[in-house]
Task: inverse folding
């Protein structure tokens, strides 16, 4: 499949081999199909499609792609928006579906519906109510971040049903004196020196979106949810900056120097 493209650059360290002069960066784009291979069904010339992942090489006016790597873009979605949201949207969808899916039910299952004594929540808006629901009576909720946004206002009556305690602490209030600061930092460094975290049977993961969109069904389902949320207005995409493809180097320089923020799209 051959298509012309709108491109969304991102900054990631890549290791590449071979001739650097022949290297073409980036793994995400949206474009119009201009040719299809013999016998291909499901895609035709003129279709608007997008992709994120392999193969590398979307910093180009045209690119040849396997048909099973692209997803259809609804006609109501601008191709610039599609190029901007395809990777970030699917990554967010993965995090919400895989990391936060039914965590209340899972906690209830583990604790036999008794709940937990303490919840430490750094996500904020998307998990706040669920975190409260995980607590046992007289439990403590410690909110120390809001990566998904500021939680909605909470009436005191929401705490009274289980006599819950809620706090939004600031580290600075607990290290206000030099003695507090030295004690707190000393405990942290002592744990690092002793290897204290090694005896806790912890789990560590560094997931890759590509492993969760490896099949065409997974890819179509994930991208379909993202585009459906864009169409319905649940997900509002803001493309902050556009550059001509010929100015890709300048776009990266501006990103690296923090002159621009948010979504950036390269236009051939």
Result:
């Amino acid at each position: 499949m051959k298509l012309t493209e709108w491109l969304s650059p991102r900054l990631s360290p890549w290791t590449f081999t071979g001739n650097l002069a022949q290297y073409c960066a980036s793994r995400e784009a949206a474009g119009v199909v201009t040719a299809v291979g013999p016998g291909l069904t499901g895609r035709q010339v003129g279709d608007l499609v997008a992709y994120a992942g392999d193969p590398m090489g979307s910093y180009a006016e045209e690119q040849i792609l396997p048909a099973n790597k692209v997803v259809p873009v609804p006609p109501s979605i601008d191709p610039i928006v599609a190029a901007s949201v395809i990777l970030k949207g699917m990554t967010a969808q993965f995090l919400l579906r895989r990391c936060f899916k039914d965590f209340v039910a899972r906690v209830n299952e583990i604790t036999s519906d008794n709940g937990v004594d303490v919840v430490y929540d750094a996500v904020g808006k998307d998990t706040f109510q669920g975190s409260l629901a995980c607590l046992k009576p007289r439990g403590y909720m410690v909110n120390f971040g809001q990566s998904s946004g500021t939680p909605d206002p909470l009436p005191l009556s929401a705490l009274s049903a289980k006599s819950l305690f809620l706090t939004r602490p600031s580290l600075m209030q607990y290290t206000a004196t030099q003695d507090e600061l030295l004690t707190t930092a000393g405990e942290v460094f002592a744990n690092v020196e002793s290897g204290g975290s090694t005896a806790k049977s912890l789990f560590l993961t560094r997931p890759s979106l590509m492993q969760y969109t490896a099949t065409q069904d997974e890819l179509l389902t994930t991208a379909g949810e993202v585009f459906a949320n864009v169409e319905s207005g649940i997900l509002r995409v803001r493309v902050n900056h556009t550059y001509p493809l010929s100015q890709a180097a300048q776009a990266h320089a501006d990103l690296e120097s923090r002159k621009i923020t948010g979504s950036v799209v390269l236009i051939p």
